[in-house]
Design goal:
Length: 227
C-alpha cells in the first residue's frame, strides 16, 4: 500500500509540473526549453510579465508573482526575469512589482525571499500596511549563490559570482566576486586577482602596500629601495 501511495504521488507530481509543453506554461511571457516549475506550486500569478530562461528548475512551493494580484494590467514590459540554468530552492518567494533581474546560473537554497517592493512609514499616523509601498529594482548577477533563508530587499544590486550567506538581509550594491553576510549584510570576502579571497581590511592593506611599493620600487639585485 505504501509503494502504491508513493507511485501515485509521483504521478501526480509529474502531471502537476509546469513546463513549456503544459497548458499552464503558455501563460508565461517566456518559459524556456527544459524549464520546470515543480508541483506543488506556490502562489504564481502575473505570468504574462514573467520570463524564465532555458533549463531552469523552480523547486516545490516556490511563489513567483508580479503585481498586487491576478488580472491586473502591468504594462508592456516584463517584470520578473530569471535566466537560464538557474535553480530556485523550494519554498522561495520572488515578488516583483517593477523589475527583478536574476542572471544565468543563479542557485538558491530553500526559503529565499526576493522583492523589489517594501512598505513605507512616512506618515507616522497612518497604519504602515495602508501606506502606498515603494518600488526599487533588484538585480542578481549571473553565477551567484544565495543561501537558505536569505532576504534580498528592494534596491539591491548583487554582482556576478557572488555568495550570499544563509539568513543574510541584503540591501545595497555589491561588486562582483563578493561574499555577503550578516544583518544588515556587508561584504566579508572579496576576490583579489593574485591574492585570492580576502576580507576587506586585508584587501585595503594590500592595496596600500602595492601603492607604497609603486612609489618606492625595490632594486631586485641589491634589495635597495630606489627613490
Amino acid at each position: 500500500m505504501g509503494s502504491l501511495v508513493h507511485r501515485l504521488w509521483e504521478a501526480v507530481r509529474k502531471a502537476g509540473d509546469v513546463t513549456p509543453a503544459s497548458p499552464a506554461g503558455y501563460r508565461f511571457r517566456r518559459l524556456g526549453e527544459g524549464t520546470c516549475l515543480s508541483f506543488p506550486l506556490g502562489a504564481v500569478f502575473g505570468e504574462a510579465w514573467i520570463e524564465i530562461g532555458d533549463h531552469t528548475l523552480i523547486g516545490e512551493r516556490v511563489s513567483i508573482s508580479t503585481g498586487m494580484g491576478p488580472g491586473v494590467d502591468l504594462g508592456p514590459d516584463s517584470i520578473v526575469r530569471i535566466g537560464g540554468g538557474c535553480s530556485i530552492g523550494r519554498g522561495s518567494h520572488i515578488v516583483g512589482h517593477q523589475s527583478i533581474d536574476i542572471g544565468d546560473d543563479v542557485f538558491t537554497g530553500p526559503y529565499v525571499y526576493i522583492t523589489d517592493q517594501n512598505h513605507v512609514y512616512d506618515d507616522p499616523e497612518a497604519p504602515i500596511g495602508r501606506q502606498w509601498p515603494r518600488n526599487n529594482p533588484v538585480s542578481i548577477g549571473s553565477g551567484s549563490w544565495l543561501g537558505t533563508g536569505a532576504i534580498i530587499l528592494p534596491g539591491t544590486r548583487i554582482g556576478r559570482q557572488c555568495v550570499v550567506a544563509g539568513g543574510a538581509v541584503v540591501r545595497g550594491e555589491f561588486p562582483d566576486h563578493s561574499v555577503i553576510a550578516g544583518i544588515p549584510a556587508k561584504v566579508v570576502r572579496h576576490y583579489v586577482p593574485g591574492q585570492g579571497w580576502l576580507p576587506p581590511h586585508l584587501e585595503v592593506a594590500g592595496n596600500a602596500r602595492n601603492a607604497r611599493d609603486a612609489r618606492n620600487p625595490v632594486d631586485t639585485e641589491t634589495g635597495v629601495i630606489s627613490r
